[in-house]
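Dear all,

This email documents one entry for the complex benchmark we are building for the journal club exercise. For each entry we list the sequence lines for every component of the assembly. Then comes the predicted three-dimensional structure of the complex as a token string, followed by one or two observations. Please use this as the template for your own entries, and keep the labels exactly as they appear.
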Amino acid sequence: MAKKYYDPAGLGKFGNIAEFQKPMADKFFAYYGEVFKEGALTAREKSLIALAVAHGVQCPYCIDAYSTDALEKGCSEAQMMEAVHVAAAMRGGATLVHATQMMDHVKDLTGA
Amino acid sequence: MKSLLAQHALLSAPSEQRLVLEDPGSALPFFADKLAESGLPVLHATNLEVLQLNLGRMCNQTCTHCHVDAGPDRKERMSREVMEDCLRALDAHPVHTVDLTGGAPEMHPDFRWFVEQLNEKGCHIIVRCNLTIIRANKKYYDLPEFYRKHKMEVVSSLPFYTADRTDRQRGKGVFEHSIEALKMLNAVGYGLPDSELELNLVYNPAGAFLPGSQDELEKQFKKSLMADHGIQFHKLFAITNLPISRFLEYLVRSEHYAEYMERLVNAFNPAAVQGVMCRNMISVSHDGSIYDCDFNQMLELPLSAGMPHHIRDLAKSNVAGRAIVTGRHCYGCTAGAGSSCGGTVA
Ligand code: SF4
Ligand code: SF4
């Protein structure tokens, strides 16, 4: 076995998760396929959302897969980077908004 | 940038390219086996309807992914004699379309003479114009007018609707000059909504990935080129890069070859096989040799046994129904929605 946590070849083996639990994997992949189909959102819009989420969840497999996918869907570099900024802003905002809790707690303890 | 030939690169030789593609040690299935496994017969030609003529390898650009290995350092070009052989072949076969390619076909000194001859024969003429040639020198500024006069269809590569990605593939400043050329084409009536002067663009991915939906890409190109530059065109053809010449060399050098080929094989679409462009065409090299398609020409894979090898012999031969010579490069034509000089096929 490779002595590393992430092996680029792992992405191509994604389907193999069925080896240990087939019914759930089958349901997951069917669902996954359905989600990414053209719907109320275009396949291109979904690709950019997936690229942003890939960065949000920091999955190197998903980052590779959806960078390629976004290129194939005709997204520009600027569009891809803006999608990542959305993820970054969300993560930053989600961290910072918790500061209100810290502030309330501090004020409560110090009687301010 | 120099051509692979001028760099004396190993992969400038078609025989070396064939060795990489047809490596028996590779895990990739042979194309013929894939057809058989999918229950499809060996690929055969239908009637000859299109002649694609490669007027030479000279080009004002040196795009990184050029499958012709064209560039300013390439001097090969079609002789008058071979052009006349082509005209004779047109008299003998019911060819409705002549597709002029290169290099930059307009750089051939006999280009205009040849187009006039073709025009007299009444066939539909396509010119694969790289756009920047129109702006390359004053002597080419009147090309849009020349195309218009001869009712030629203009098919032009524009890898992307932004400057950075286009210039990375085709060279610095190419996007800007291409936009100027497109405006000149629009100005004489090319690409306008109800105009019969057809202006179609070719999109090919700027790297080791496949083209997405042709319709979606066309929408994006139309929207961006109109909003940013006021440019109009008719159709967008999404073409897959075939692993040949400079694109093959890039794939091998950047270690993307195996991954790219795997993507092509995984995307094999049996429904795309019937529409591949070699079925109704013959491709002619600058030296008069003939092939099933431009890609086979670059790999120097001649027509199947018993078929003529030179355009001078085409007039007296029947090439309809011939078996087409295929190889692993053909996966590029059959991946996803398929790919041809006219875009997707399935
Ligand atoms: S891709 Fe076309 S424009 Fe670019 S170098 Fe090759 S022949 Fe010339
Ligand atoms: S490369 Fe494409 S066009 Fe050429 S022989 Fe193969 S399938 Fe036909």
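Observations: The helical segments of chain A are 9-12, 22-35, 43-56, 60-72, 77-97, 99-110. Chain A has six helices and no strands.
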